[in-house]
Amino acid sequence: MTIRQLRNYIDGRFEDGASTFDKHSPVDGALIAQAHEASREQVDRAVAAAHRALPAWAALPVGQRTDQLLALADGISRRFDDFLQAEIGDTGKPVSWASQIDIPRGAANFRTFAELARTLDMESYMTDTPDGRQALNYAYRKPLGVVGVISPWNLPLLLLTWKVAPALAFGNTVIMKPSEVTPSTATLLAEVAHDTGLPPGVLNLTHGFGPGSAGEFITTHPDIDGITFTGESATGAAIMRAVAPGVKPVSFELGGKNAALVFADADFEAAVDGTARSVFANCGQVCLCTERVYVQRPIYERFVAALAERARALRIGWPDDADTGMGPLVSREHREKVLSYFALAREEGATVVTGGGVPVFGDARDAGAYVQPTIWTGLPESARCIKEEVFGPVCHVAPFDTEEEAIRLANDTRYGLAAAVWTRDLTRGHRVAQAMKVGLAWVNCWFLRDLRTPFGGSGLSGIGREGGRHSLHFYTEPTNVCIKL
Ligand code: NAD
């Protein structure tokens, strides 16, 4: 097998890095790629190139600029299989998931923000003036400038393009740094940008790590105009410190410890299926995944048994097998973290309803990063396993009696990203969803997305919202123009 070389893309050219780092498959541990770590000098040149490209890119008529975004979307669709293999190779996620979610959404992000940029209206007011006349106020929006995009490993292409697309659509130029754990699809995106003739410097790619590497070089760079970041809450805090001296705007989409509330009147099968999906999808590695399930007492025992049945029925397997329901975690390192929570849960007094260990295959996958889908009950609400994000295929299920209690339990967290409410009583569905201290509340569904809606969280889950015109607000700066008439 050839070891793919993943290079940096700076000012329209692919460049080796000062050093390389290895990318191993989470399926069997095999070496699959080498990424070229960008030096500080390379990040400096990427930022300088982005500044040079900015005026012309920002001045392009919006129709021409968004045509280039549509070309990027078409380029992803044309190389669908390359992106699919790269995504699966980096993450081990099942082909059924990557082919329906990650790669189509990568293209859809460019299409959605191209359309939004083309159809934007403008905020304006007619203002009465003291002399009986009027003034016209309008907020003229200009690009923020050179934007640093730092993304995580769980949905690498989807989350990268979720930020690159609006940044470019609204006239910014970009330095992107994908996670060191999943460097492949970003490299393909740079190839697509190159092949579709995106002007040099508009979209730059630098590979590397966080501290002492490309992540830090970008966030501490004096000429970066804003940082948009998806990843862990602790990393968000570090980036906030890094940008503080320059008072740069940040947009943060961080971790979660999301609750699902299942009321006794819910459509039982739909609630079990939806909750199983929300716990185990992508091996539990979606920021929106449910890790705390609260079930109304009359159906509690039955629900736990049915959820455990779904967990046991999940086919854990090779990612490119169409029947695989769950692949490995993203890496052996991440598996160490998840397994440490499996051990901690036992110490904290959990009953392990199902899972709690590592599957044995008797083949090459034993060198991968697989874990069993896992369900706990019986933990006190103060347990660390109830408070801290695990980011694996695991949840704790606890009973509740009243709606008030369910709301209190769900909101008893420092995170504030997502919640799911399952009930046939839609009045209660609205009421409980509105009471959730989260950015996203789903009723009788989960991870159903409209890209125009505000996306993000509060508390430890982030700062700001992106999506639709919320992205416009982050990626542009308004100048209010007031004209006396
Ligand atoms: P991470 O924070 O470890 O890494 C994310 C990115 O930040 C990587 O590119 C990494 O190299 C970079 N980085 C790390 N330290 C840095 C530093 N000091 N300065 C600059 N860059 C730095 O996150 P991860 O482990 O890749 O992703 C998983 C986390 O992301 C989970 O907590 C998950 O909940 C969260 N997440 C949130 C959302 C959301 O929309 N809210 C979406 C997906 C993932």
UniProtKB/TrEMBL annotation:
<keyword id="KW-0560">Oxidoreductase</keyword>
<feature type="active site">
    <location>
        <position position="253"/>
    </location>
</feature>
<comment type="similarity">
    <text>Belongs to the aldehyde dehydrogenase family.</text>
</comment>
<feature type="domain" description="Aldehyde dehydrogenase">
    <location>
        <begin position="19"/>
        <end position="480"/>
    </location>
</feature>
<dbReference type="InterPro" id="IPR016161">
    <property type="entry name" value="Ald_DH/histidinol_DH"/>
</dbReference>
<dbReference type="InterPro" id="IPR016163">
    <property type="entry name" value="Ald_DH_C"/>
</dbReference>
<keyword id="KW-0520">NAD</keyword>
<dbReference type="Pfam" id="PF00171">
    <property type="entry name" value="Aldedh"/>
</dbReference>
<protein>
    <submittedName>
        <fullName>2-aminomuconic 6-semialdehyde dehydrogenase</fullName>
        <ecNumber>1.2.1.32</ecNumber>
    </submittedName>
</protein>
<dbReference type="InterPro" id="IPR015590">
    <property type="entry name" value="Aldehyde_DH_dom"/>
</dbReference>
<dbReference type="InterPro" id="IPR029510">
    <property type="entry name" value="Ald_DH_CS_GLU"/>
</dbReference>
<dbReference type="InterPro" id="IPR016162">
    <property type="entry name" value="Ald_DH_N"/>
</dbReference>
<dbReference type="InterPro" id="IPR017628">
    <property type="entry name" value="OHmuconic_semiald_DH"/>
</dbReference>
<dbReference type="InterPro" id="IPR016160">
    <property type="entry name" value="Ald_DH_CS_CYS"/>
</dbReference>
<dbReference type="GO" id="GO:0047102">
    <property type="term" value="F:aminomuconate-semialdehyde dehydrogenase activity"/>
</dbReference>
